[in-house]
Design brief:
Layout (H helix, E strand, L loop, with lengths): L7 E2 H12 L6 H6 L4 H4 L5 E2 L1 H15 L15 H9 L5 H15 L3 E7 L3 E8 L9 H18 L5 E5 L19 E2 L5 E6 L11 H10 L2 H4 L7 H12 L8 H7 L4 H10 L4 H17 L6 H7 L5 H12 L3 H9 L1
Parallel strand pairs: 5-6
Antiparallel strand pairs: 1-2, 3-4, 4-7, 5-7
Helix pairs in contact: 1-4, 5-6, 10-13, 14-15
Length: 337
């Protein structure tokens, strides 16, 4: 089991689709292309794969001709990001990437105001929506901040370590998704929406080429949704070892502790300090692996159950229903409808 696996809350799919349909568009075709059904959208526990969310967003971009997904006053027409990216590629450093990308959007669309500030020892990148009430669930704000961290990181060929991410709104119900989005502590009820990082990274050179950019844009937005989740140190090591395991379902805490050259007691203590446990990590990985495999139409449910270490399909069904609120067969059927 070496493929990259994690799932994403249905919250983002529902929010983006709802915004489009409020403008009078019919999203049924886009849902079908993403292998999703409307029934799934109404279940808060349901999670989807990065490929499903990427297909949905790509379809919404094209259908509504708006890369801001109808969550702002003015559209950002499909292809605008590509133009900005080409413009940003003309710079030589991370500093110029942020300057060029911010200036580009501030010139062409007043719906979002991007601000790039250099301070004594750190950098602040922030954004402000002209009509924040349209982004009622704050998902566009979250989405844009994620992009403006990941795209510049790709431009310099390494991830920019963030010091903190700040939001002006209160912590939402889907805040657990931030571990998939931002490699830094997240703070709410702040005075701005943005993030900060060490100023020393601004001189990092741009390493990408036009050819690389074409490939990058062809994959968008999948790459933005498919990056490794940002876990604390010990949690990340445990997760990595479980992902590499050929027997995820039967892997034990003792085995993982041995592989980490530590004791089970020490491992348990460190995970508790990171507010998790071995069983929680293992169950989340089994859940996300199950969702990934269920998105493959030719993979029998019984086979998936065996791969995940369940002795009987019925045990897998109970566990999956506990994780997502629906049975595996129902999840797959809804995705095929």
């Amino acid at each position: 089991m070496s493929f990259s696996r994690y799932s994403i809350s249905i919250h983002y799919a529902r929010t983006f689709l709802s915004a489009l349909e409020r403008q009078g568009y019919d999203g049924e075709t886009v849902l079908a292309q993403a292998n999703l059904s409307r029934d799934l959208l109404h279940n808060e526990q349901v999670r989807i794969t990065p490929h499903q969310l990427a297909a949905l967003v790509q379809g919404l971009w094209r259908l509504g001709d708006d890369e801001f997904l109808h969550l702002t006053r003015r559209r950002s027409r499909f292809g605008t990001f590509a133009l900005m990216a080409s413009h940003a590629l003309g710079g030589t450093s991370l500093r110029s990437v942020y300057h060029r990308s911010s200036h580009f959007y501030n010139l062409i669309n007043e719906s979002v105001r991007f601000q790039f500030e250099e301070r004594e020892d750190r950098v602040r990148f922030s954004l402000e929506l002209a009509a924040p009430e349209l982004d009622r669930d704050h998902t566009l704000t979250e989405f844009l901040l994620m992009i403006w961290h990941r795209f510049p990181s790709w431009m310099i060929g390494r991830r920019i370590p963030l010091q903190r991410v700040c939001f002006s709104f209160s912590q939402p119900a889907h805040a657990a998704e931030y571990r998939l989005m931002y490699p830094a502590p997240v703070f709410h009820n702040q005075t701005f929406n943005g993030f900060e990082f060490d100023k020393e990274y601004l001189d990092s050179p741009v390493v990408q080429t036009i050819a690389n950019l074409r490939s990058y844009l062809q994959r968008a937005p999948l790459d933005w949704f498919s990056r490794q989740a940002y876990y604390p140190t010990c949690t990340r090591r445990v997760l990595g070892l479980l992902e590499e395991s050929e027997s995820l379902g039967t892997a034990t805490m003792d085995e993982i502790a041995d592989a980490m050259h530590t004791t089970t007691r020490t491992l348990r203590r460190k995970l508790t300090e990171e507010e998790t446990s071995f069983q929680e990590i293992k169950d989340s990985l089994r859940r996300d692996t199950a969702i990934h495999l269920l998105s493959q139409p030719n993979e029998p449910v019984a086979s998936i159950a065996r791969q995940l270490g369940f002795s009987e399909p019925s045990a897998f069904t109970r566990a999956f229903k506990h994780w997502t609120g629906v049975a595996p067969s129902a999840y797959r059927k809804q995705g095929e409808d």
